[in-house]
From TrEMBL:
Name of the protein in its database record: Hypoxanthine phosphoribosyltransferase
Source species taxonomy: Bacteria, Bacillati, Actinomycetota, Actinomycetes, Streptosporangiales
One annotated Gene Ontology cellular component of this protein: cytosol
Obligatory cofactor(s): Mg(2+)
InterPro entries: HGPRT (IPR050408), Hxn_phspho_trans (IPR005904), PRTase-like (IPR029057), PRTase_dom (IPR000836)
Length: 185
């Protein structure tokens, strides 16, 4: 799917496919260097992280294992509550393992902060975060994100794994939607 397929539903391309791929290679270079000689497990947070996991994993030169978690923050409304339910847990025992959580976006940071605490209670050798995107609100939660792709404005974005109502995940770029998509005509 590309911009032309979006027609008038697309407002803006915020980060192009080329910019994404260049950044992912850069992140992979840092991760290669930081984890050289170590046994690394990368953990993708479903479903938003599928694209970055697939591209990042292939850009890495170090051998990694891959696992997945699915979580949902519940509570009323569309904002994350910080109360998180695990829909799919890891298949892997992470005790004494180096773990890197790969996430699509940090908005409030509540989901990842919960997730990191949860993983830390399993006594990994280390647990770090790699997020493709970060919004300004994330500074409100004291969470240490080791790798960040792009800091973006506080706008709702779609594409490259990110959805609106489960759509637009298969765009190769990050974009914003035209207002009519949210609100009818
Ligand atoms: P938070 O950091 O706990 O507020 O929630 C982060 C999660 O909310 C992400 O993993 C996404 O699933 C979702 N999310 C936050 N901002 C956006 C956005 O702009 N587009 C699509 N999903 C988003
Ligand atoms: Mg997500």
């Amino acid at each position: 799917m590309d911009a032309a397929d979006m027609g008038r539903d697309l407002s803006n391309v915020l980060i192009s496919e080329d910019e994404l791929q260049t950044k992912i290679k850069e992140l992979a270079g840092q991760i290669d260097a930081d984890y050289a000689g170590k046994d690394l497990l990368i953990v993708g947070v479903l479903k938003g992280a599928v694209m970055i996991m697939a591209d990042l994993a292939r850009a890495l030169h170090i051998p990694v294992q891959m696992d997945w978690m699915a979580v949902s923050s519940y509570g009323a409304g569309t904002k994350s509550s910080g109360v998180v339910r695990v829909l799919k847990d890891l298949d892997t025992d992470i005790a004494n393992r180096h773990v890197l959580v790969v996430e699509d976006i940090i908005d409030s940071g509540l989901t990842l902060s919960w997730l990191l605490n949860n993983l830390q209670s399993r006594n990994p050798a280390s647990a770090e975060i790699c997020a493709l995107l970060r919004k300004p609100d994330a500074v409100k939660v004291p969470i240490d994100v080791k790798y960040v792709g792009f800091d973006i404005p506080s706008e709702f974005v779609i594409g490259y794994g990110l959805d609106y109502a489960e759509r637009y995940r298969n765009l190769p770029f990050i974009g914003t939607l035209a207002p009519h998509v949210y609100g009818g005509e």
